[in-house]
Write a structure and sequence with these properties.
Helix content is 40%, strand content 13%. By secondary structure, the chain is of the alpha/beta class. A hairpin with a 5-residue loop joins strand 8 and strand 9. Helix 1 packs across helix 3. The protein is globular and about 50 Å long.
Length: 284
């Protein structure tokens, strides 16, 4: 678990990432604000605390791998890569431009992106394949993948997790961004598969439940996952869609929506002067 100084630093990184996300959204452009904001704390902890990663050489063979299975949340990855200096800050205003570096979903032509993802369910399969490849090559690289709770209705994910169990992929950590909303409303009202802990356990996972906005819990879970031997780890992170922007929190319309000028300015103001609450999240 990160020490107090680590936690303070990571909170500020996550805040800056959220500012980057809002800047990428801009005014009058559709984008996936909600799901990018809900996992920003987790992505910050991965890149700035846990993963072996050299921002000066994002093709370094010894690096750990990170993938978004919920590829529509790519803005959170771009935000982190910008803070690391992998991506030039000037790209933030060019998201989804034809021929641009930053597309709406992860693309390997973007520096720091490991795989094309976004067709829901496929990213977990890619992560399992990467983890198995490292095992076969006797390499100690680790693989981290974030999936969404709406995405868990995809059968391909569970097929992949059966393989992760069979091949004992203890170098794989699957993180569930459980923000309880999907494109058109509450996940439990659209397709409620529920009981994630029991399901992950039955599919062979060492399972941890956390508050996905508490940096202490996030770093502690990532540390714990690294100690697990003989099976993969699933971290179930309870999160808030749109976290950090008061008017977007728990609002399904911001799954893939747009900001007015007033909303953009308000979001930037809220994130520019945050107050941290007692459990590590942002008071928005």
């Amino acid at each position: 678990m990160g020490n107090a100084a680590d936690i303070v630093k990571l909170k500020d990184v996550a805040r800056r990432m959220r500012l980057n996300i809002v800047e990428m959204m801009g005014v009058g452009k559709t984008g996936h604000l909600g799901g990018s904001m809900s996992c920003a704390d987790i992505v910050a902890a991965l890149y700035f605390y846990k993963m072996r990663y050299d921002p000066n050489d994002c093709g370094w063979e010894g690096r750990d791998r990170f993938l978004f299975s919920k590829g529509h949340a790519a803005l959170a990855q771009y935000a982190a890569l910008t803070e690391l200096g992998v991506l030039d800050r000037q790209f933030l205003t060019t998201v989804k431009q034809y021929g641009g570096v930053l597309q709406g979903h992860p693309d390997v032509h973007t520096p720091g992106v490991e795989a094309n993802t976004g067709s829901l369910g496929q990213g977990v399969s890619v992560a399992v394949g990467m983890a198995l490849g490292f095992k076969l090559d006797k390499r100690d690289n680790r693989v981290f993948v974030i999936a969404g709770d709406g995405e868990m209705a995809e059968g391909q994910i569970w097929e992949a997790l059966m393989a992760a169990d069979f091949y004992r992929l203890d170098n794989l950590t699957v993180i569930l961004d459980k923000n309880n909303l999907q494109a058109t409303g509450k996940t439990k009202e659209r397709f409620d598969i529920g009981r994630f802990s029991e399901k992950f356990v039955s599919f062979g996972a060492y399972t941890i439940k956390i508050d996905g906005h508490d940096m202490g819990q996030i770093t502690g879970a990532l540390d714990e996952a690294e100690t697990v031997k003989g099976r993969y780890t699933a971290i179930i992170a309870e999160t808030v869609k749109g976290k950090g922007v008061s008017f977007a929190e728990n609002v399904a319309g911001f799954h893939n929506g747009m900001l007015t000028r007033e909303e953009y300015d308000r979001a930037m103001a809220e994130l520019s002067a945050p107050a941290c609450d007692s459990d590590g999240g942002l008071n928005a």
